[in-house]
Amino acid sequence: MRLKADITLLVVAIIWGTAFVAQRIAGQMGSAYLFNASRYLLAALVVLPLAIRVGRASSPTGQVANLTYLPRAQYKWMLIAGSLLFLGSVFQQVGVVYTTAGNAGFITGLYVVLVPFALFVFWREKPHWLSIVAVILAGIGAFLLSTGGKPEVRAGDLLVLISTLFWTFHVILLGKYASRFEAISFSVGQLFICGVLNFGLGVFIESFPPFAWSWLGAVVYTAFFSLGLAYTLQIWAQRHTPPADAALVMSLEAIFAVLAGWLFLGERLAIIQVFGCVLIFIAVLLSQFKEWTSGALDHDHLVEGR
What we know:
Number of strands: 0
Strand content: under 5%
Helix content: over 70%
Radius of gyration: 19 Å
Number of domains: 1
Largest sheet: none
Mean pLDDT: 85
Oligomer: single chain
């Protein structure tokens, strides 16, 4: 069962990595806000049946009481979480237009490194010394990846890095506040809020691109697979594999983003950029080393930022 769960998480990492290709395809068609609106709202509809099923199973009367009569506090935290998703998704999607899928995948993964420092600055939780080393390595790696060793940061990479800050606070929010509520209904709520905010902004500053199967495919792939199927698969897999396995397997997402960008979009990385990727990958693994040895790592939040 553990091997099956690890293979399942590998599939999830592949889905999330290749999703950056879909985002880049949509971005090249001039679609950011409305693309996000379409995929997040569709994802909310995809996850909704599962939320209804969970609600009925947990209700003594067989009704979906925990969906129709959610705690008042849950609405507040769903709104905050959905707003963070909105900001993260906007900066990431606009950034993907001006950078590669591989760069976006690796830079997005930096949130794992940034979480301990955000906890220190805002919640006074002292970071482990390994986290400090990881941030230094990640900073050097991100510079090499974005600039190729030249002192000029690409706008797309900077925008994706800004999105990573919002993913960081989203992860912290889920761990500290959202964990007290039923997970599936919370997911539906924040996905819906993110979609509505993207739509509300998109209708004023964007127009829907001319119909193209590639754009529709990008919406469907990211909604059904990246935000819908992967979420469900991860929930199951996390019940049957230890946290250390999950940490290692999920870290492969950025690698698959680079491979997918090369395979489907013909993207290339210079040797020094590859070295930057390696440093970021090492930083992500190093930042989680303490959690691996203690068995305390929880990756159930990862899908929320996709």
